[in-house]
Structure formats: structure tokens, C-alpha cells
UniProtKB/TrEMBL annotation:
Coiled coil region boundaries: none
Organism: Sediminicola arcticus
Domain Cyclic nucleotide-binding: 13-131
Xref: InterPro entries: cNMP-bd_dom, cNMP-bd_dom_sf, RmlC-like_jellyroll
The protein's name in its UniProt record: Crp/Fnr family transcriptional regulator
Amino acid sequence: MKDLINKIQSSIHLSSEAEEYLFSISKEKALPKGEVLIRQGQVVKKTFFVTEGCLRSYCIDETGREHTLQFAIKNWWISDYIAIHSDELATLTVECLTQSKVIEFNTKELDGIHSRFPELESYQRHNLERHLVSLNKRILNQLQLSAPDRYDLFLKQYPDIERHTRNFHIASFLGITQQSLSRIRVEKAKK
């Protein structure tokens, strides 16, 4: 929990009352590799702050193909925000790719924090803005960059993630096949 408190306090002053409230509405969890936190098609009531490990969110389309939306590493948030904010069933599955530690929050309790502690609203708004910028950049990169360029950018953004993920996770994040990813790696090794 201290990781989250430190992250918040790096942006805003957090009162001791707000800190205590965060402790009261959260649960710290140690999770094994392969643990599924949210399953596509279920009701979503939780959001997670990652303190250790690597998680991913993905969906499976009608043909059975996986599409990775997000990897979450230390100090990142992960959930199915589409389901949370539209009162729909989960469109994503969230799973642990490694042994992980997370702080779990009930989304209704976390949303209610702003009325009790308005100083947290600016922190949350800043997080949402960063998330939106990241998603917009990802969409533009998918539209404008070649697969090798997307892979190079991926390696810069997630320098150690290849140790924690399988090839098909990375390929599905980049929107390419595993065979294409293998070819890109071979070409990159030749340079």
C-alpha cells in the first residue's frame, strides 16, 4: 500500500485521513502466475493497482483470437474500464503473467473518495489524462507505424517485459502474428 501512497504523494499532498480511508477500502493481494482477476463476460466491480509483477488485459474475438489491450507493471492501474463505466459485462479478461502483488479496490468505494477528499480528484484526473494520451498514441502508432517500428517502440516502453510475457502476448498487443514477430526479431538480430 505504501507504493500507492508514495505515488499519490509525489503528485499531491495526501492528508492522513485520506490515507487511512484508502487503507480501509483496499485489500493487498499476492497472486500466483496465471490468476485471472476479471473474466470476459462477468460483472466488473474491482480495479487494481500493481505493486509487483506483470498483468495483462485482453479480449478474445468471435474467431478465438486474442487481442492484448494493456500490460500493467509496477505502479500501473488495470481493470476493464469499459465495463465499469458503461455498466456492461466485462469485455476484457485481466490475468497475472507473473507472480504479482496488487492493491484491490471496489470501484464504487474508490469513486466515492472524491466527495470525501476532493484533493484526490485532481490526481485521478491526471491519471485519466495520462491513460487517454497513452491510448491515443497507441492507436496512432497502430495506424501509422510499420510492425518493426511498433516493436521497437514497444521495447522502449516496456524494456523488461519480454522476460514476463509469451510471444503471442506481444504479437497480439502489436496486432501482428507470432510468425511476423519472429521475422522482425530475426531481422533486428542481423543489424
